[in-house]
Automatic annotation (TrEMBL):
Protein purpose: Probable 2-oxoglutarate-dependent dioxygenase that may be involved in glucosinolates biosynthesis. May play a role in the production of aliphatic glucosinolates.
Keyword set includes Magnesium: no
Single GO term (MF): dioxygenase activity
Family: Belongs to the iron/ascorbate-dependent oxidoreductase family.
InterPro entries: IPNS-like_FE2OG_OXY, IPNS-like_sf, Iron_ascorbate_oxido_reductase, Oxoglu/Fe-dep_dioxygenase_dom
Superkingdom as given in the UniProt entry: Eukaryota
Name of the featured protein: Gibberellin 20 oxidase 1
UniProtKB keywords: Dioxygenase, Iron, Metal-binding, Oxidoreductase
Start and end residues of each Fe2OG dioxygenase domain: 163-269
SUPFAM superfamilies to which the protein is assigned, alphabetical: Clavaminate synthase-like
């Protein structure tokens, strides 16, 4: 028996009453969040502000969506270069995902719902809107903690939040047939600033700093918070983009839900994170330009898509 200990993904408890700015709990959590993002690109969050009712109704609403006909799922719901629906993709036959742009706006949820369900679907519309509103607070807290831990001004944090677009994503994986791959999604990093994921069925793994895979648990109040390529640019490579993957090993369909954030305006690497030790690594960054670039041949051939797009 070896005495080798594997590293773990840090877990931060946001349910504590003491998790308020300026408290000791908050200040130490800021350090844990920053080191976890720098080391692994992510961490686990315990967060109980998404009610069980909203959690359950949003998963049901997502199941409802994935049960639709292929034609309904492929209806165009946004002009942005964001996958409104993705499925039947080469190499990942088990995977499907749906994205609702601007889920914090009830009106936009309604517009989305009316395109997909011309007769309406109040459960879908209300659930995704409530889910996003209850979860976005965690996104704000984490970003605030990142700004605080680097000693950056709060007005910079506020201006980042003001120019953020959100997408709520649902994921579904069917079980593999005999002889079929169990890879739900191959290892990758997300293009987003931050992705906050909850899974209803296990399968999500994170590649830690030491190259070990860490399996994320299942609970309505457990979220994986991950930095994406855009956070790497913003932080001038201080923060890693979290490498993750999904394996389907259970005999039931897997569902998960994520809240992803994107920079709505051209973003520069944060000036306060550029110094002699950390020279400027990226040019200015157009997030939607990056999403358009992402599936080009040049991007696919490159060693690192983000470096190929705006690296120095
Ligand atoms: O299914 C999940 O939980 C994550 C899926 C994923 O990583 C992706 O589509 O980018
Ligand atoms: Fe991902």
């Amino acid at each position: 028996m070896g005495s080798q200990t594997h590293s773990q993904l840090p877990i931060v408890d946001f349910t504590s009453q003491n998790m308020k700015p300026s408290t000791g709990t908050w200040v130490s959590a800021c350090q844990v969040v920053r080191s976890a993002l720098e080391d692994h690109g992510g961490f686990l969050a315990l967060y109980d502000k998404v009610s069980l009712e909203t959690h359950n109704s949003t998963y049901s609403a997502m199941e409802n969506f994935f049960d639709l006909s292929i034609e309904s799922k492929w209806r165009k719901t946004t002009e942005k270069p964001i996958f409104s629906y993705s499925g039947q993709r080469q190499g990942i036959p088990l995977y499907e995902s749906v994205g609702i742009m601007n889920p914090l706006s009830y009106e936009d949820c309604q517009k989305y719902t009316n395109v997909v369900w011309p007769k309406g679907n109040d459960l879908f519309c209300e659930s995704v809107n409530s889910y996003a509103k209850q979860l976005v607070e965690l996104d704000h807290i984490v970003k605030r903690m990142v700004f605080e831990s680097y000693g950056l001004e709060m007005k910079k944090f506020e201006s980042l939040l003001e120019s953020t677009d959100y997408v709520l994503r649902g994921y579904k994986y069917r079980t593999p047939q005999v002889g079929e791959t169990n890879v739900g999604v191959a290892p990758h990093s997300d293009t987003a600033l931050l992705t906050i994921l909850n899974q209803k069925v296990e399968g999500l793994g994170v590649k830690l700093k030491d190259e070990e895979w860490f399996e994320v648990g299942v609970s309505p109040s457990l979220y994986l918070v991950m930095a994406g390529d855009a956070m790497r640019v913003w932080s001038n490579d201080r923060i890693r983009a979290c490498e993750h993957r999904v394996l389907i090993n259970s005999m039931i369909e897997r569902y998960s839900i994520g809240l992803l954030s994107y920079a709505a305006k051209i973003m520069e690497p944060e000036a306060g994170l550029v110094d002699e030790e950390h020279p400027l690594r990226y040019k200015s960054f157009d997030h939607y330009g990056y999403l358009r670039f992402f599936l080009t041949e040049e991007a696919i051939k490159s060693e690192s898509r983000i470096k190929a797009y705006c690296g120095i």
